[in-house]
Amino acid sequence: MTVTDAETPRRLPPFPEELVASTAFLLKRLGFVAKEQAFDAYESAGLGPYHHAVLIALGENSHETQGAVADALGYDRGQMVGLLDELEEQGLVERKRDPSDRRRHIVKLTPEGKRMLVRLRALSKRIEDEFLAPLDEEERGQLHALLLRLAEHHLPRRGPLVLPPARR
Fold this sequence. Notes:
It contains seven helices and two strands. The chain is mainly α.
Protein backbone atom coordinates (compact mmCIF):
# COMPACT_ATOMS: atom_id res chain seq x y z
CA MET A 1 0.00 0.00 0.00
CA THR A 2 1.42 3.39 -0.92
CA VAL A 3 0.62 6.66 0.73
CA THR A 4 -0.46 9.42 -1.61
CA ASP A 5 0.35 13.09 -1.13
CA ALA A 6 -3.28 13.70 -0.14
CA GLU A 7 -2.94 11.24 2.76
CA THR A 8 0.39 12.61 4.04
CA PRO A 9 -0.01 15.43 6.53
CA ARG A 10 1.62 18.60 5.28
CA ARG A 11 4.65 19.54 7.33
CA LEU A 12 4.60 23.19 8.29
CA PRO A 13 7.73 25.34 8.21
CA PRO A 14 9.49 25.79 11.56
CA PHE A 15 8.70 28.80 13.71
CA PRO A 16 11.15 31.71 13.43
CA GLU A 17 14.11 31.30 15.81
CA GLU A 18 13.30 34.50 17.71
CA LEU A 19 9.86 33.13 18.58
CA VAL A 20 11.23 29.73 19.61
CA ALA A 21 13.60 31.59 21.96
CA SER A 22 10.59 33.24 23.65
CA THR A 23 9.19 31.36 26.64
CA ALA A 24 5.97 33.40 26.46
CA PHE A 25 5.50 32.43 22.79
CA LEU A 26 5.99 28.73 23.61
CA LEU A 27 3.53 28.95 26.52
CA LYS A 28 0.92 30.56 24.25
CA ARG A 29 1.38 28.03 21.42
CA LEU A 30 1.34 25.07 23.79
CA GLY A 31 -1.73 26.54 25.46
CA PHE A 32 -3.50 26.52 22.10
CA VAL A 33 -2.50 22.87 21.54
CA ALA A 34 -3.58 21.82 25.04
CA LYS A 35 -6.93 23.59 24.66
CA GLU A 36 -7.61 22.01 21.26
CA GLN A 37 -6.71 18.54 22.51
CA ALA A 38 -8.89 19.00 25.60
CA PHE A 39 -11.93 20.16 23.62
CA ASP A 40 -11.55 17.23 21.23
CA ALA A 41 -11.31 14.73 24.11
CA TYR A 42 -14.20 16.21 26.12
CA GLU A 43 -16.43 16.13 23.06
CA SER A 44 -16.80 12.37 23.52
CA ALA A 45 -18.35 13.04 26.94
CA GLY A 46 -20.80 15.55 25.48
CA LEU A 47 -19.32 18.31 27.61
CA GLY A 48 -16.35 20.64 27.54
CA PRO A 49 -13.52 21.62 29.87
CA TYR A 50 -15.55 24.62 31.09
CA HIS A 51 -18.34 22.29 32.21
CA HIS A 52 -15.77 20.11 33.97
CA ALA A 53 -14.41 23.11 35.87
CA VAL A 54 -17.93 24.01 37.03
CA LEU A 55 -18.48 20.45 38.27
CA ILE A 56 -15.13 20.54 40.09
CA ALA A 57 -16.03 23.83 41.83
CA LEU A 58 -19.40 22.40 42.86
CA GLY A 59 -17.76 19.14 43.94
CA GLU A 60 -15.61 21.02 46.43
CA ASN A 61 -18.80 22.24 48.15
CA SER A 62 -17.19 25.63 48.72
CA HIS A 63 -19.03 27.44 45.92
CA GLU A 64 -22.76 26.98 46.02
CA THR A 65 -24.21 29.98 44.20
CA GLN A 66 -23.99 30.68 40.47
CA GLY A 67 -22.10 33.88 41.18
CA ALA A 68 -19.63 32.22 43.55
CA VAL A 69 -18.84 29.52 41.00
CA ALA A 70 -18.38 32.12 38.24
CA ASP A 71 -16.08 34.19 40.46
CA ALA A 72 -14.06 31.15 41.60
CA LEU A 73 -13.42 30.13 37.99
CA GLY A 74 -13.01 33.62 36.55
CA TYR A 75 -15.98 33.09 34.22
CA ASP A 76 -18.37 35.76 33.03
CA ARG A 77 -21.64 35.45 34.94
CA GLY A 78 -23.60 35.37 31.68
CA GLN A 79 -21.41 32.52 30.44
CA MET A 80 -22.03 30.70 33.73
CA VAL A 81 -25.80 30.77 33.19
CA GLY A 82 -25.38 29.05 29.81
CA LEU A 83 -23.01 26.42 31.20
CA LEU A 84 -25.37 25.68 34.09
CA ASP A 85 -28.32 25.47 31.69
CA GLU A 86 -26.44 22.80 29.71
CA LEU A 87 -25.43 20.89 32.84
CA GLU A 88 -28.97 21.08 34.19
CA GLU A 89 -30.42 19.79 30.87
CA GLN A 90 -28.18 16.72 31.24
CA GLY A 91 -29.30 16.18 34.83
CA LEU A 92 -25.84 16.89 36.26
CA VAL A 93 -26.75 19.90 38.44
CA GLU A 94 -29.86 21.36 39.97
CA ARG A 95 -30.56 25.01 40.76
CA LYS A 96 -32.92 26.35 43.37
CA ARG A 97 -33.67 29.86 44.55
CA ASP A 98 -31.84 30.75 47.74
CA PRO A 99 -34.61 31.03 50.39
CA SER A 100 -32.69 33.80 52.17
CA ASP A 101 -32.08 35.82 48.97
CA ARG A 102 -34.48 35.26 46.08
CA ARG A 103 -32.05 36.92 43.64
CA ARG A 104 -29.53 34.09 44.05
CA HIS A 105 -29.57 30.49 42.86
CA ILE A 106 -28.07 27.68 44.90
CA VAL A 107 -26.43 25.10 42.64
CA LYS A 108 -25.76 21.49 43.63
CA LEU A 109 -24.39 18.43 41.91
CA THR A 110 -26.91 15.66 41.34
CA PRO A 111 -25.90 12.04 41.90
CA GLU A 112 -25.42 11.75 38.11
CA GLY A 113 -23.28 14.91 38.24
CA LYS A 114 -21.06 13.28 40.86
CA ARG A 115 -20.67 10.19 38.66
CA MET A 116 -19.87 12.39 35.65
CA LEU A 117 -17.27 14.27 37.68
CA VAL A 118 -15.49 10.98 38.42
CA ARG A 119 -15.47 10.16 34.67
CA LEU A 120 -14.27 13.64 33.72
CA ARG A 121 -11.46 13.51 36.29
CA ALA A 122 -10.21 10.31 34.65
CA LEU A 123 -10.51 11.91 31.22
CA SER A 124 -8.64 15.00 32.39
CA LYS A 125 -5.84 12.86 33.85
CA ARG A 126 -5.52 11.01 30.53
CA ILE A 127 -5.39 14.29 28.58
CA GLU A 128 -2.72 15.68 30.91
CA ASP A 129 -0.67 12.47 30.82
CA GLU A 130 -0.74 12.43 27.02
CA PHE A 131 0.18 16.12 26.76
CA LEU A 132 3.04 15.80 29.26
CA ALA A 133 4.24 12.42 27.95
CA PRO A 134 7.71 13.73 26.95
CA LEU A 135 8.38 14.71 30.58
CA ASP A 136 9.23 12.33 33.44
CA GLU A 137 7.59 12.69 36.87
CA GLU A 138 10.33 14.94 38.26
CA GLU A 139 10.16 17.26 35.24
CA ARG A 140 6.37 17.40 35.51
CA GLY A 141 6.69 18.41 39.14
CA GLN A 142 9.24 21.10 38.29
CA LEU A 143 7.08 22.47 35.50
CA HIS A 144 4.04 22.57 37.76
CA ALA A 145 5.95 24.30 40.55
CA LEU A 146 7.22 26.95 38.13
CA LEU A 147 3.75 27.50 36.69
CA LEU A 148 2.36 27.88 40.22
CA ARG A 149 4.96 30.58 40.95
CA LEU A 150 4.00 32.43 37.78
CA ALA A 151 0.30 32.10 38.57
CA GLU A 152 0.76 33.45 42.10
CA HIS A 153 2.62 36.44 40.69
CA HIS A 154 0.26 37.18 37.79
CA LEU A 155 -2.99 36.19 39.50
CA PRO A 156 -2.47 37.85 42.91
CA ARG A 157 -6.18 38.37 43.58
CA ARG A 158 -6.57 34.60 43.70
CA GLY A 159 -4.42 34.46 46.83
CA PRO A 160 -1.92 31.69 47.49
CA LEU A 161 -2.42 28.70 45.24
CA VAL A 162 -2.20 25.70 47.54
CA LEU A 163 -2.16 22.18 46.24
CA PRO A 164 -4.09 19.44 48.04
CA PRO A 165 -1.79 17.01 49.87
CA ALA A 166 -2.22 14.32 47.17
CA ARG A 167 -0.69 16.59 44.49
CA ARG A 168 2.25 18.01 46.49
